[in-house]
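Let's see one such:

===
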Amino acid sequence: NSWVSKLSLVDLEPAPVPKALSSPHRLTLQLQKNFSLRRSDSYGRVGSSRGDIDVKVAPASVPRALLFVDTFVKTAEERGFAFALPESEYEPGLSIVIKRQKVKFSVFEESNRVMSTRSKGSLRSPAAQARIEFRPSARFSFKIREYLTARREPTFSDRPKEPLEGQLSIILHGLSTAALELGEKAERLAKERENEAKLDDQHRLAEV
């Protein structure tokens, strides 16, 4: 994961995550409310609504997720970033806006794949069948859901000696880097369209 590794070499301003919520941001309160209304999915996680920060975690991990999101949102706004509602029904949550570029992202708890053996028929039946289940792992990840030049959808995850909370500054820097790349990509595409239009005009003039 060289794209993420290079980000860690930059000297960044720390963004510590507190141990308890204090004056939660409105987006945090909104997320907290929507979590309370959701049921766990087949992966054992509850998810946010489309008007929230996109988060999927186990019910037991909700307090940790709220602390992370609250610090993330507050720090992002302190640095002049903003958040925008999804533009289509296929986007699961808010995007972060940096230098007029919208960058999509997700926070989620990874799942472990396990084999579960359940009795077939009555509890007394000796017959059983194995099935695959997914269970929350308590391992958090933050994914930038953009296809960038150096890496497709860069992802930051809990490490043995550095949880996701300790990587918040790097994550914000990664989002800024992604916004820069997306802006440059948009400029290239606009330039290409402009050149194509000029060529079309030249061809039409030559045909006259």
User: Anything to note?
Assistant: Helices lie at 2-7, 26-36, 62-78, 168-207. The beta strands are 46-47, 55-57, 82-84, 95-98, 101-119, 128-144, 155-157. Residues 50 and 130 are 35 Å apart (CA to CA). DSSP finds four helices and seven strands in the chain.
